[in-house]
Amino acid sequence: MASSHSWLDMGYGPRRFPGFRHALARFVVRWVVRPFFRLRVEGLERLPDGSSVACFNHLNWIDPIVILAALPADPPVYFFGPKERDMYAGPKNRLMRWAGNAVAYGTDRRDMVQAVRRVEALMESRAMLAIAGEGRIHVGEAGIRSLSDGPAVFALRSHVPIVPVAINGTSWLGFGRQIRVRIGEPISTAGLDRRADAARVTAEVRERLGDLVADFPELPPPGPAWRRITEMFNDWPEGARPEVTPAQ
After folding, report:
1. Please, what is the Cα angle at 129 between 55 and 161, to 5 degrees?
2. Which of the residues 147, 197, 209, 243 could staple to 133 if both were Cys, CB 3.0 to 4.6 A apart?
3. Ordered DSSP codes for the chain
4. Minimal CA–CA distance to 91: which of 11, 170, 198?
5. Model pTM score
């Protein structure tokens, strides 16, 4: 049955111009992250002055919150996802819908076409789109899973740089533990074709992300309370948290 809500009302897309809710969300996440963790941000000077696509690795549900806390307010940061048609379903979705900083998408072709249009509108309005290129959380602080071509395709469609953003220290959360965000050198998409060059750009992003995370050690599990917080919203495709193996 068709809904009377517009795609914006349903939370399908972000507010094009960040306002009070967007600013409040950034304030809240900084209040959440900085008092409890030692947040270290490296490479802010590498951020492009204008629209870009940020491809980040994904270790924990808190990673988008860490990115909001680590990056400057300008340009505003939006996130591609979650993969939901109804942003009223679930507390995380309702929060992202309220903040207006998520580009949600469904599974059918029409939903994806709408999502692409929303991304293009953001790129025209001088924003950063952050995407978890691995498409899922994983274990292994020093490893990067295969990336989808999505981040590269979005960057290539709008001819904006793609920025590798590496997050470390979130695989196990603990009070006072260091969380590091490293921003890599942007990859230019000028003069490239989204069909011919997407795979090559994706491979380059993965290589750079791998270099950025390679020196971070595996973390020991914290006490029971912080273990529960770590896994609070994690959705493991395996059904439970897997063990770290040398291949990951």
Report:
1. 65
2. 147
3. ---SS-TTTTTSS--SS--HHHHHHHHHHHHHHHHHSEEEEE-GGGS-SS-EEEEE---STTHHHHHHHHS-SSS-EEEE----S-TTSSHHHHHHHHHT-EE---SSHHHHHHHHHHHHHHHHTT-EEEEETTSS--S-TT--PPPPSHHHHHHHHHT--EEEEEEES-SS--TT-EEEEEE---B--TT--TTTSHHHHHHHHHHHHHHHHTTPPPPPP--HHHHHHHTSS---TTSSPPPP-TT-
4. 11
5. 0.85
Per-residue pLDDT of the chain (248 residues; tens, 9 = 90+): 333 333 333 344 454 445 666 667 777 777 778 889 999 999 999 999 999 999 999 999 999 999 999 999 889 899 987 555 554 455 555 555 555 577 876 666 777 788 888 899 999 989 999 999 999 999 999 999 999 999 999 999 999 999 999 999 999 999 999 999 999 999 999 999 989 999 999 999 999 999 999 999 999 999 999 999 999 989 899 999 998 875 44
Kindly report the length of the chain.
248
